[in-house]
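lol ok so funny story. i was supposed to be doing the assay writeup but got distracted and ended up predicting the structure for this chain instead. priorities right. anyway since i did it might as well share w the group, maybe its usefull for someone
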Amino acid sequence: MFEEHTELSEVQVPHCLQLNSDVETVTLHTFTDASADAYGAATYVRYKYKGGTVSSSPVASKTGVALLSATSIPRLKLMGPVLGLRLALSIAKVLKIDQNLLAFWSDSMNVLWWIQIPSHSFRPLIANRIG
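and the output, tada:
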């Protein structure tokens, strides 16, 4: 089977997140999502080099399983960003990346609206996650 993919031997995967001297900025990008069964987050590091080129590498991901009691999809979609925030903060601490250089991505308009409104406007579950 591998004989059919001759260019596979040319693929190189870096195994180190160490910076070289050509790096201009480093940012962390965390993507979150949820379904009826689970929620999760994946974090990537993005390097912008002095020459203008950009590269990115996956760093870590985490998942959680939905509770057995009926939980709505929007609430589960809020659990993903909570997990993603914790993941990104721990990675930023280890890689010594400033918290201002963290970016978070979600496809849920509910989540994006919820985080813009003061948390005291919501029921406890949502308010605690937003807080």
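The radius of gyration is 18 Å. The domain at 14-130 is CATH 3.10.20.370 (Ubiquitin-like (UB roll)).
back to the writeup now i swear
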